[in-house]
Amino acid sequence: MTVAAILAEKGREVVTVAPATTVAEASALLAERRIGAAVVTDRSGRILGIVSERDIVAALAKYGADALTRDVGSIMTSKVITCAENDTINEVMARMTRGRFRHLPVVTNGRMVGVISIGDVVKRRIEDVEREAEEMRLYIATA
Q1: What's the pLDDT tens digit per position in 25-84?
Q2: Closest CA to 120 of 106, 132, 133, 102
Q3: How many CA atoms lie within 13 A of 3 on its CB side?
């Protein structure tokens, strides 16, 4: 199973923010959309970073309430690891586990075409395991 299959099911919408967006605005957006991260992009759509709930908590711990008035460009994770649509679920799960991050932009031909989360990956992996188990039960029952 590949990343493309996840995107086909969940959609390709990507929530982005500009680097000048305040942490307060980004926090409100994450809460409103019920998501854990937004990709920080420039006007041309180039990925500059990612701002996650974890980045916001770290900024609050470091700057206190003043963190809310800072721009996300100053607190974002700037080293963003990406994946491709043809990457397998097992590959991206390993990448996310090794890097200890939960969101992965999907890039095709230099263009961002979606974002997957560890929740998307685990959900799909569980579905695959359940399907395989059911196929084994059917195989055994008909043998």
Answers
A1: 999 999 999 999 999 999 999 999 999 999 999 999 999 999 999 999 999 999 999 999
A2: 102
A3: 23
pLDDT at position 7 is 95
Beta-carbon neighbour count of residue 65 at 10 Å? 8
Tell me which residue of 115, 121, 113, 120 sits closest to 90, measured CA to CA. 121
Q: What is the assigned CATH class of domain 3-142?
A: alpha beta
Distance CA 17, CA 100 (A): 22
The amino acid that residue 66 corresponds to is: D
Please, are residues 5 and 124 in contact by the beta-carbon 8 Å criterion?
yes
Domain ranges within the chain, ordered by starting residue: 3-142
41, 93 Cβ separation under 8 angstroms? no
Q: Which two tokens stand for residue 66?
A: 């003043």
The answer to whether residues 29 and 40 touch, using CB atoms and an 8 Å cutoff, is: no
